[in-house]
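Justification of resources, computational component.

The compute hours requested in this renewal are based largely on the per-chain cost of generating structure records like the one below. Each record pairs the submitted sequence with a full C-alpha cell output. That output is archived, and it is also reused by downstream analysis tasks.
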Amino acid sequence: MTAFPEIERIPFEGPQSKNPLAFRYYDPAEKVEGKSMRDHLRFSVVYWHTFRGQGADPFGPGTAARPWDDGSNSLENAQKRVRVAFEFIDKLGAPFYAFHDRDVAPEGESLAESNKNLDDVVKVLKEEQQRTGIQLLWGTANLFSNPRYMHGAATSPNSEAFAYAAAQVKKALEVTLELGGAGYTFWGGREGYQNLWNTDMRRELDNLARFLHIAVDYAKEIGFTGQFYIEPKPKEPTKHQYDSDAAACLNFLRQYDLLDHLKLNLETNHATLAGHTMQHEMDLAGAAGALGSIDANTGDMLLGWDTDQFPTDIYLTTQCMHTLLKYGGLKTGGVNFDAKVRRESFEPIDLFYAHIGGMDAFARGLKIAAAIRADGRLEGLLKDRYASWDSSLGAEIEAGKHSFASLEKIMLERGEVTPNRSGRQEMIENLINTYM
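The structure output for this chain reads:
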C-alpha cells in the first residue's frame, strides 16, 4: 500500500517548469566544478520533523494530517512509518536520511525494552535501505525529551542520568554502525544551565568532555569509522548551552583534546539565534578544518526562537555553497533538511512542496557560487585587499621573521602607514547581485 499514491518520482523539468512537483534547478546528474549536484549537495531528509512532527506549538495541538499514522506509540505503527518514510524519500530522490533513536522506535518501560524496540525497527530500516539505496547520513540519540534528562545528560548533576545517556548512545552508535551510517551527531539539547548559582560549570564541562572521549573510545572498539559531529546551539531550551556557537564548540574541543575526533554540524537557525550568520559559522569552522555537515533551514528574523523553516532564500544558499566550495565541499556530511512545514501546511503533499523548494534553492545557490568562483572577480578583489601581505614586509611577518623591535624600527623609518585600498563593500554587494 502506498502512502502517496498521487505522487510519482519527482522529475527535473528545468527553470521554465510551472509544475510544483518538479525540480527547476536540482538536476542530480548535472556537473558543477567537475562533480555532480547529487554528490555536492548530499541531501538528507530528517526523520523527526518530516515523519514525527505533528504541527503542534505552545498554543495548540498538532494539525498535521498523516493518514498512515494511527497516532499510537506502538511498535507496529513505528515499523509502518518506516515504509512511508522511505517511499517519501525515494520519490523525492534524496540520497540520505537522519534520525534520533526515539524518532524511529518507541521508548519502552526499561532500557532493555527500548533497545529491543529499536532493534525491531532497525530490521525494517535495513530492509528499506537495501530496497531503495537510500543511506543513513548520521544517527543520534535523543538525550533531551525524557524527564530523566531535565537537568541535562552528559552534564547532569545526577550521575545515573549520565550513565543512562552513555548506555543510550552506546546502543545508538551500534545501530548507526549496523545501518552503515556515515556519521554520528551529538546535539546537547539540555547540556547547559538555567542558573549559575546552582551550577558547577567546570564539573559539567569536564563531564561533557569525558562523555565524548568515552564515545570516541567505544567507536574504536566496535569499528565505527564514521565522522563524529557536535552541533552548536546557543539557547532553547536552556538559557545558555555549552555548545552555543562554532567558536565555543571549537574552543571546547581544543581545550579537551577532542578536535581530532569531532567536526561541526552547523544549522542556520542556530547561527542566527547565536547572533551570527550561517556564512560566519561555516567560515569559522572551515578555517579550523572542522566544517563537517550542515542542517539546512532558516529562522524568521521577527521571531527569537527556533522556527526551523525550509530555506528558500537564494542569497543564503549561495553563501552556504560558496563557503562549502571554498573549503573543499562536503565529504561525510550533507545538506540535511532539519526543517518542518508550517502548522498551516497540514496536508501530506506539503512535505513534497517544502523539500522540493529547499533542494532547488540549494541547487541554485550551488550554481551561483560556482559561477562566482569561475568568474574570479570576487577573489581578485579579495586578493587586492590583502596585497600588502604578499609584499616583502607582509610576507616577512607571516614567515615569522619579525619581532616588535624590528617592526618598530621599520615604522620609525617610514613614519606613517600608507593608506590601504578601499574595502569596496558596496561594489562587492552590487557584484554579487549580478550573479543572482
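The mean pLDDT is 96. The first helix runs from residue 37 to 41.
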